[in-house]
TrEMBL record:
This is ADP-dependent (S)-NAD(P)H-hydrate dehydratase. Homotetramer. HAMAP family: NADHX_dehydratase. GO terms for biological process: metabolite repair; nicotinamide nucleotide metabolic process. It comes from Phytoactinopolyspora alkaliphila. PANTHER family: ATP-DEPENDENT (S)-NAD(P)H-HYDRATE DEHYDRATASE, ATP-DEPENDENT (S)-NAD(P)H-HYDRATE DEHYDRATASE FAMILY MEMBER. It comes from the Bacteria. Keywords: ATP-binding, Isomerase, Lyase, Metal-binding, Multifunctional enzyme, NAD, NADP, Nucleotide-binding, Potassium.
Length: 492
């Protein structure tokens, strides 16, 4: 801002915002370069041939977010749209934005007594597009009173809700939703993706995300949260070199499954085999080992951790049951990198002395931290950070947006999840994948985030063919997912 004339950034933001609205109103097919990272992102477009004659309503809060909406509204009005503004507080409104809007032929439907005039409500109901400019990054706490009412009205009744910078009422920095908020179909965000657009529950309110570049790039600090794209993952997948052998590729010890949960052993060994482990050494009861060998003849087996030959990493806990805590503790005390999943999480020492990747879902993390599951789901980043700090370990919190939080503070959010992965055994496959990557030498942050990404792509592939895939379908889709990720980036 210091290097530019006053208001220049807002003009860039408003121009980008108006351009996205115009494109949506044109009904442009597939013209959107935005993030479809939820695997959907298809927006039902109110095709009208363009802004001319379209009904656009601006919800205008008291700060610069409202200013963006007013300036964009002015641009759309000049292109023939019928643009109405509902101003939340007439005593606090972006002055130059409002004048530009009125000069361009925009109308204000609210009055000094408040925003909820009959004309305003009617306009929101009939709008092709509602631009939510109530709150941006200056918002604190959820929406109140009239703002909350308008947000609910727009989300329920209006054509398409386009959030300016972020859906008003979400917490920009955490992904929490402290109260009432807008539910948008599209979010047009400026300069950089806000953390809250990437982490649930707030991310769910953002819809399809479009980034408008306003020239902040050279000035941005290191991001608080990263999201790997396909190419980033492809570059991190260990590709065997000319002199590879099974030991150099990484030997994974697998302490998983039990006579009660045999399937977990098959799925997690399978995840490790397809995840590129040079060898998987399975440690478990004779009858489970026999099943593992029948399905995965490339695995080798031993009765327990003590009798397992040399490994480079351990994956511990998927379907392990209650009675092998001593072995879990032995693996955790080996000093080798360890992935700890499911039942293994109940055997964590107060402090870990090995590089560790913990992979709880919300319920398991709640138990680990002795808090409510609902609270973990509402404050995913907060609790994942807390566990990473407490155990000095990388924490992969599974769920609708999988987070991977390293004890040094780095955070990655996975872009490839799909609800199809919410099925029994899916986590066992992920544990195998992550374990193989740890054994191959990836650090826990990379192992966790690459495994989650591959797992998500496999889930999407499986959902595309099986509709409602089982964990076995996801496992079967892993090799294809790896091939497509790597091949797409010319690394094969
Ligand atoms: N900072 C920048 O470089 C740019 C900012 N831009 C826009 O400016 C926005 C930030 O503007 P502001 O800092 O003015 O902040 P906002 O517009 O987000 O909020 C403004 C005011 O709302 C009030 N408020 C906060 N929480 C509230 C609540 N729960 N209920 C009711 N009122 C509440 C506060 O008094 C606050 O001052 C961004 O989100 C973006 O839209 C863009 O114009 C591009 C450039
Ligand atoms: K907003």
């Amino acid at each position: 801002m210091a290097t530019l004339p006053d208001g220049a950034l807002m003009q860039r933001a408003a121009a980008g915002l108006a351009a996205v609205c115009a494109r949506i109103l044109r009904g442009a097919d597939n013209a959107s370069p935005g993030m479809d990272w939820r695997g959907g992102g298809q927006v039902t477009r109110p095709a009208r041939g363009g802004p001319y004659g379209a009904r656009v309503v601006l919800l205008v809060g008291s700060g610069d977010n409202g200013g963006d909406a007013l300036w964009a509204g002015a641009r759309l009005a000049r292109r023939g749209a019928r643009v109405d503004a509902v101003v939340l507080r007439h005593d606090r409104v972006h002055e130059s934005g409002l004048s530009a809007f009125l000069d361009a032929g925009g109308r204000v439907l609210s009055d000094d007594d408040g925003p909820l005039t009959p004309a305003a409500e009617q306009a929101v109901r009939k709008a092709d597009i509602v631009l939510d400019g109530i709150l941006g990054i200056g918002g604190k706490g959820g929406l109140r009173d009239d703002a909350a009412y308008l947000a609910a009205l727009a989300s329920a009744d209006a054509g398409l809700v386009i959030a300016v910078d972020l859906p008003s009422g979400i917490d920009a920095d955490t992904g929490e939703t402290p109260g009432a908020h807008v539910r948008a179909d599209v979010t047009v965000t400026f300069g950089t993706h806000k953390v809250g657009l990437l982490i649930d529950p707030a991310a769910e309110a953002a819809g399809h995300i479009e980034l408008v570049d306003i020239g902040l790039g050279p000035y941005l600090p290191r991001p608080a949260v990263e999201m790997l794209e396909h190419g980033d993952v492809a570059a991190r997948i260990p590709v065997p070199g000319r002199h590879a052998d099974k030991y150099r590729r990484g030997v994974l010890g697998m302490l998983a499954g039990s006579t009660r949960y045999r399937g977990a052993a098959l799925l997690s060994v399978g995840g490790a085999v397809h995840g590129g482990a040079g060898m998987v050494r399975y440690a478990g009861p004779r009858e489970v080992s026999a099943m593992v060998l029948e399905r995965w003849p490339e695995a080798v087996t031993a009765p327990d951790v003590e009798h397992t030959d040399r490994v480079q990493a351990w994956a511990v806990g998927s379907g392990l049951g209650d009675d092998r805590g001593d072995e879990a503790e032995a693996a955790l005390a080996s000093g080798l990198p360890v992935l700890v999943d499911a039942d293994g999480l109940r055997h964590l020492p107060a402090e870990l002395t090995c590089p560790a990747l913990l992979t709880p879902h919300a319920g398991e993390l709640a138990r680990m931290l002795d808090v409510d599951r609902g609270d973990v789901e509402a404050r995913r980043l907060h609790h994942a950070r807390e566990a990473a700090r407490r155990w000095g370990a990388t924490v992969l919190l599974k769920g609708s947006t999988t987070l991977v939080v390293s004890p040094d503070g780095r955070v990655r959010v996975n872009s490839t999840g799909t609800p199809a992965l919410a099925t029994a055994g899916s986590g066992d496959v992920l544990a195998g994948l992550g374990g193989a990557l740890l054994a191959a030498g990836l650090d826990p942050l990379d192992a966790g985030s690459v495994a989650a990404h591959i797992h998500g792509v496999a889930g999407q592939v499986a959902a595309g063919t099986a509709g409602q895939p089982a964990a076995s379908d996801v496992l079967d889709a892993v090799p294809g997912a790896m091939v497509s990720l790597v091949a797409a980036h010319d690394l094969l």
